[in-house]
Amino acid sequence: MVKRKGLEPTSKTSPPLNLPKSLPPSNLPIVPYHDDIKRCLKSSNCIILTSSTGSGKTTTIPFLAHTTLSTPVTCTQPRRVACTSVSTYVSSLLNVTLGGKIGYNIRFDKKISKETVISYQTDYMLLRGSASGWGRLFPDYGCVIIDEAHERSLGSDFLCSLVKSAMKARNYSRFIKDDSDISSEPEEIKQLRKIVRKRKLGPLKVVVMSATISATKFEDFFSTPLSPASVLKIPGKTHRIDVTYLKDPCVDFVEACVEAMYRVHSGYGEGDVLCFLPGREEIDGAVYSLRKLLIEREEGEAQPFLF
């Protein structure tokens, strides 16, 4: 996990049982908007939040939701490694033990206890417990956060549908006096509302987050006549970013990545290069090719660290 400047984990000695009331001071772009986020969490049933990568959404919003709403919060991630790395970082940041107040839930691995109030889990793990019966109302949570919503996988789309139904059932059932008030509702919502009234479930808040999301589509989907979704757009760039494209399409994108990384390495001095590739096979191939290229062209010189 790469540590962001200005948001360093606190000491790990004697972790407290309870979460702190606030996050450690930081210079993340999302910090000046904490009050706006808290206000939206209190006033809206659903928030569509867009902000550039690195703004602090994933590490900050679940904590703000929990402290503002005083309710358990879960945040979904499309990948297992994101769940484990983010939960580990946040628990270290807040100086609490992983698996206590902060936890994660992925396939074949889970660090969650009865004390957990903020959890990170993959879309499919949350779906497993909410696809039928009582679980469709997400009774263990008062706020569900769907992160990286722009990826639009089958799991995340299905999850959005379930969360919307649960939100409608839990948030408006307290205004309904008897079954005649819901005669025009779909049968599924009728049944969910009955369960909510019987179990006395509280409201469910929903936050949809992404760096490249189409806010209008999600706003239209989650908005209801009684409660339109709120849209928050937070600037997230902390440094200058230049985008450069290849002039011509490449036949072998792995080879093209290797050549591009070598040009950066040999022409720009000290620094780091982060390269995204679709799978392990491509990553291993790129590392092998780059090492071979460095040996051929820079024999006798100190080699950069590849991982």
TrEMBL record:
InterPro entries the record matches: DNA/RNA_helicase_DEAH_CS, Helicase_ATP-bd, P-loop_NTPase
Q: Describe the location of the Helicase ATP-binding domain by residue ranges.
A: 38-231
Ranges of biased composition (kind: Low complexity): 11-21
- From the UniProt record, which GO molecular function terms apply? ATP binding; helicase activity; hydrolase activity; RNA binding
Region called Disordered, residue ranges = 1-23
Q: Which domain of life is it from?
A: Eukaryota
- Keyword annotations from UniProtKB, A to Z: ATP-binding, Helicase, Hydrolase, Nucleotide-binding
**What SUPFAM superfamilies would the database entry show?**
P-loop containing nucleoside triphosphate hydrolases
Q: What PROSITE patterns does UniProt report for this protein, alphabetically?
A: DEAH_ATP_HELICASE (PS00690), HELICASE_ATP_BIND_1 (PS51192)
| Record has ATP-binding as a keyword | yes
Can you tell me which family this protein belongs to? Belongs to the DEAD box helicase family. DEAH subfamily.
Q: What is this protein called?
A: Helicase ATP-binding domain-containing protein
Write down the species.
Answer: Triparma laevis f. inornata
